[in-house]
Structure formats: C-alpha cells, structure tokens
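Backbone-to-sequence.
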C-alpha cells in the first residue's frame, strides 16, 4: 500500500491517522527465517541485522508485518542521514548496528498464524496487531501510533515535527490492504517528491547542481524534468559517492539547452540510477518544472522504478 499527497487535512468518520515516520518502509516476515524487504523488493536484513534479529525474536512463525525501519538520534530526533549510512554499510553492518542501532515501527498486520489478512478491514487488522504487540518485550520493535480523532492527529502534526516526523498518513478504517495501490493519503509539512539524477552541473565527483529526470508515462523514456539549485557542500560528498559518469549509452544529449544550465559548459551526464528527493513548486510547463527545484536529500532506499512518472508528486 502506498500514499498519495494531499494539500488539505483529510477529515471524516472513517479516517485513521498515523505519524509519517521518516525511515525505510519494510515488510517483516517470519516464516522459518526472517525477511526484511523494501518496497522495491530489496532485501534489507543484510544492512540491518539488528532489526532482523529483533523481529525474529518477537514475531511468531507465519507472521508478516508492514512497518518502517527508523534511526533515532541521541537528541531523540528521527535521523534519516544516519539510516542511509546504515543502509549502505552492509559490509560492516554488524559493527554499524552496534554504533547506530535502528528500530522497527509496526503499523499493519498482513499475515498471522499463516492466515492472510489483506482482505480484512484495516480496523480489524489493527486490532490483531495490537494484540500481537502486547506480547512484545523487545524495545527495538514497537507499535506505531494511530488515532481516529482529528484533533489528536492535528496535535501530532504540529508537535511531532520537532522530532523529525514528516506529517501524517490517513487510512480508511474500512480499507483492505492492496499492494501498490495509493489508497492512503499523506499530509506533509511540505510537498516533496522523487526524481532520477541524469546529469550534474560540475563533475560527478563534485556536483554543484543536479539535472533530474522523470520517465514519460506513455513511452517510458527518461525526460529532463528540472534542475536543482546549488547543492550545499555538506551533501556533495554523499552524492559523489553514488554518482557514476555515463558512457555513450545515455538517453540525454551530450549538451542540453541553455535553460538547463549547460551554457556554463560544465554539464556532465551520469548513469541514471540515483534517486533524490526534491521540493518543486507548482510552476510547470512542457513537461518540466520551470523553476529550480529544492534538493532535499538522496534516497538510496529507492530505485528508479519507484519514482513517479511525468511531473506527478505521488510517492
């Protein structure tokens, strides 16, 4: 299940509200062994052995849970940058687990005692999940908050921002679990979305700005969609470690029109495999964002196939 962005607070008797945790979405399954799987199907247990061990210790066989892997800083804030360091440190994962331990927040129950629950209403799945979590004593696995009270949800929206919660997710209490469907709603402090990096202004080893693209929903071709503002020096090293210069096989020309910044003479193409989170405004025409988009962060937990098409902000 995925969420689509909305600009107004959703209200109604059937909405259930949850914090939008700033982490890695992961399905946790216990069936013989334990499996942690990202929303793009990537196994996460090698990078998060501490979370996998905690999940294995508390989930009975035949259980599948949907949730989020998060990292709390020493100041009590959600720390996505530290989480990404963990996600890239599979070779030294056990050492990283000792210095930057992570937690798993469970918010949906998909299977219990081997019985599939996806066709049960959310309210029923939640009740089963709460009963399961009552037996959990492992502090690294916790039950995500949920409320049906709009006033409480609004308080969460305002107060939990200080600890790094992005906003709220609203779910229909009558709803079934439908993988890939965007039936949930996300109400965030700012609207962000994802894009694929196809080029840089500067060098791949020192990207000053990014040229980002989106797949065309009709043809599947990667189109130039926009350009970021200047990347802060603190973020350039992280991007440089991920960006790879492209060879001759690239969907974009060697030189882009001047409006994309290539007039400066230092545009370089990169392999279109890195996903970044951006904050565009509403100004768009001819399939591109007209103004420079804000760079938010790298999303190494996502694959290019996870990025919305055209200029959609659904994510």
């Amino acid at each position: 299940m995925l969420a689509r962005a909305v600009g107004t607070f959703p209200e109604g008797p059937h909405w259930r509200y949850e914090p939008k945790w700033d982490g890695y979405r992961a399905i946790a399954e216990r069936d013989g062994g334990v499996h942690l799987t990202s929303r793009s199907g990537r196994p996460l247990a090698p990078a998060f052995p501490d979370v996998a061990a905690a999940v294995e210790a508390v989930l009975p066989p035949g259980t599948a849970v949907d949730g989020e892997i998060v990292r709390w800083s020493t100041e009590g804030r959600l720390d996505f940058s530290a989480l990404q360091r963990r996600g890239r440190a599979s070779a030294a994962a056990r050492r990283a687990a000792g210095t930057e331990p992570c937690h798993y927040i469970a918010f949906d129950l998909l299977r219990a005692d081997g019985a599939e629950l996806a066709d049960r209403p959310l309210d029923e799945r939640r009740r089963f999940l709460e009963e399961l979590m009552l037996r959990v004593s492992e502090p690294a696995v916790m039950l995500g908050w949920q409320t049906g009270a709009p006033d409480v949800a609004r308080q969460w929206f305002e107060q939990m921002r200080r600890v790094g919660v992005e906003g709220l997710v609203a779910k229909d209490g009558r709803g079934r679990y439908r993988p890939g469907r965007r039936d949930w709603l996300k109400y965030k402090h700012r609207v962000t979305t994802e894009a694929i990096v196809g080029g840089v202004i500067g060098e791949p080893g020192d990207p000053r700005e990014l040229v980002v693209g989106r797949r065309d929903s009709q043809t599947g071709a990667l189109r130039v969609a926009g350009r970021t503002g200047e990347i802060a020096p603190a973020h350039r090293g992280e991007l440089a470690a991920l960006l790879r210069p492209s060879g001759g096989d690239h969907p974009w020309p060697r030189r882009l029109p001047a409006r994309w910044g290539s007039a400066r003479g230092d545009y370089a193409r990169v392999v279109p495999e890195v996903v970044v989170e951006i904050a565009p405004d509403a100004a768009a025409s001819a399939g591109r964002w007209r103004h420079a988009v804000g760079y938010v962060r790298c999303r190494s937990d996502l694959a290019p196939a996870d990025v919305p098409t055209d200029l959609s902000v659904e994510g």
